[in-house]
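Re: the pair you flagged

First of the two:
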Amino acid sequence: MTAETAVRDAQAAMPGTGNTQLPSIQRRLLAALAVTGLLWSLAAIVAVSLVVRHEVDEVLDQGLKEAAEIIYGVFQLNPALMAPGSRGTLPAPPHLEQLVWQLLDAQGHVLLRSHRAPSQPLLPAQQEGFVHTPGWRVYALPAPAAALPPAAPAGTLAVAHPDRERREARHEALLYPAVATTLLGLLAIVWLRHRTRRELQPLFDLAEQVRHHDPLGRAPSLPPATRDELAPVHDAIDELSQRLAQRVAREQAFSAHAAHALRTPLATVVANLAAAQQRVEDPQTRALLQRSRQATHRLRSVVSALLTLFRSGSQPSIQPVSLSTLVSQLPFDMLQVHVSEGAPPAGQEPRQLLVDPDLLSAALANLLDNAQRHKAQHVWIEGDSTPDDGYRITLCDDGDGMDDAQRARLQSALDSEDYAALPGLGLMLDDLVARAHGGRCRLSPPRQEQATGSHIVLTLRRQRRV
């Protein structure tokens, strides 16, 4: 396990890094608040409607009764002022009446009525108290004798309120509280939603901190927790980061020591094979020693690649170097390598790359080794700038190459960093080196002028020298 792989696996298990759609606490809480607010508003409206209906009816009935008693007193005290007009109505200019009244004789005939009262009797027969007739709410009481003609021994005073007006009063009395209750409920939902998001924001902040947290970097601990409830999660992540950093440090130390312990005897073996090859005159023996030297060189490349893999999890050591210089220092005895860099402006030196020379050399050496193992004889390495001020290194060879299906499968594994699906260390090393420089490794189809071969592109972002 490399440092980068270990850190990536640990961060994948941390909050906010998965792709699975899980139930959201925020959405569930907001939905519960919305449903609660709506149900509360509905219950309040129903309760208010029942109370308002009862209270409005009670107030209207009380007003109806008091109006009847006042009219009764007016008739009793001022009978001469209530002489009927030409059509049996009380003389008055046209006006809007909310209450109407009728003075009925014992047979139910209308003797006198208010301006807007109907000409037909409000009561079918002599009655007392509250009576509901079609379209009217009526309160009846015995008429005062002073208001009746001498020939009429008894009569009824009926005061009525139209049902339409009562319904309108109930509707208006209910409408305004209902609107106010609904608006208050909506405002409460909006406010609670704002407060919920604000209270959950520290959780999102913690997830963002974990997403960018590098246990092997300069700040191995997360910033302090901002909420008491998040402190256990914060402490658990810090403990996990410390265990991870210790584990990666042990693995890096072991790999570095192991690789170093291998490089020294390998260098000795290479030197001894070279000396033996010079002293032996038998052609077959010399050829055998040459193959042994090549195998040893390849073993040294594997050791260097392993060192590079473990170094790729740390900060690259950025230095200026040219692509042609890097390639010239690589071993490619059986390959013809052609290097071309983007032409610099007139009068200027070729562009210097700001890269980690060891990492990029290991990646290029691995690409050349892969080309040689796939029967390539020529390799073309091109370097040019990208529009975003980065750098692109393209390597093409005339080897066996790969088909479209294999290329798509390997590219998918590189994009998702599923290095276990790659055949060996080669592409994994190239991708890790490119990612260490802020770039990627891409596999492209062969160019039109090539019948076979591989076409690999390493993109590198512009680095700052540390």
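Second of the two:
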Amino acid sequence: MISEHPEFSRSLDDGRLQCTLCPRDCKLSDAQRGLCFVRQRQGNRIALTTYGRSSGFVIDPIEKKPLNHFLPGTPVLSFGTAGCNLSCKFCQNWDISKSREMDTLQSSATPDAIVQAALEHGCRSVAFTYNDPVIFYEYAVDTAIACHKNGLKTVAVTAGYISEQARPRFFEHMDAANVDLKGFSESFYHDLCAGSLSHVLETLLYLVHESQVWIEITTLLIPDENDSPEELEAMTKWIANNLGKHIPLHFTAFHPDYKFTNRSATPHQTLMIARKIALNNGLKHVYLGNVHDIDNAATYCHNCGIVLITRMGYQLGEWHLDEQGACEKCGSPIPGVFEAQAGNWGNRFQRIRF
């Protein structure tokens, strides 16, 4: 099953084609690839060269995306391809997202085969992750369409670096998204990611105010780069004022990788300070990730303060939501997408081969 897709390109006077899928607007001569590597001009069109091919298929916990308010405890079939439309010097998945070798894509599967595997293994959703699904738009959307036909939800793990033209066409097929807000300054995006903050903020505003997508936000805190109290104040105030106080925000710890191997890992205290700033600015659901911190991985009722869900790693413990997803004690609805009972997938990771 392959659906028809819009052509995200336009012809230029000098004979090149401009890719309009993301804000990079790569201008391509015949056979030339965009910065993302996977989109290539072939004659008078720009083609996805990795359709149907993946760096691997895994069933893992939905909390790993991370999504804490979307079908908690359930398994999700996750996959990515290769390449990326940003150039983050600190990339934690650089072996996939920065790959220029097609040997990385050793697995292949059609959208229908992915759906069948997800159903056979009891998954509630399929996630497009590991590298940004924006660049493998056609493969992600076709798979999402097949998922919805078979009762599966869809998840995009994305940096939100997508054009205004492509944004609604992509996200209309997604049920949830975790958006990676990498920092809160144009200089950070320009110097460390070769991108622009403004385009990501536009995506976040679109998702909250013009779509039905459930969203959560993740910020990887890098020492001395995006972790100053001033930047965290500005970021969390912007989220509270522009997106709402109930958007779950995940602060995750950086570990030295890719071009940042000479940097220090994020101290736990830095994460704690960030969480305190976010809470002081009115955000109701703030989580810490990539660290062992049971208290700050738990979900609390924003009204009465009781613990609703505890997590040990990705394993759920206590569950105090009623069948409608409201607090058992005070009855306040908890924002998110919840089933009547908690999932029990736990910490398992299972590779799938087609």
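Helices lie at 94-97, 111-120, 137-149, 167-171, 186-193, 197-210, 229-242, 268-280.

-B.
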